[in-house]
Specification:
With 116 residues, the chain is an all-alpha fold. The protein has one domain.
Length: 116
Amino acid sequence: MAASILALHLAWILWVIFGALVTRGRPLLSAIHIVSLLWGVIVEASPLPCPLTSAEQHFQTYEGEFIAHYLDRIVYPDLPGWILTSVGIGVCVLNLVVYGWRFHNARQRRAHEHIG
């Protein structure tokens, strides 16, 4: 079970990092991704525990499992906490900048369509 939760956690991390690449032109998916980004910022910047991490710890009976071992190394790299937090927040901010840029461009297009 822990290996499945680790795989889900990795998928979540990849969604938060790269979600903006697949949300263009999809307002509902964009909204879901923005909420995901905000959740990522909150979890990284606060003492709140990540529910997936808590679930992994609860089901942590996979010692010695090959796949779980490597998933664990990807989801929890051996880096200082401040680096992980900085990179996590940076990724979230970068994605939010992409959404801001898209929003700005959409407003400009609408303004030009309205004028012309």
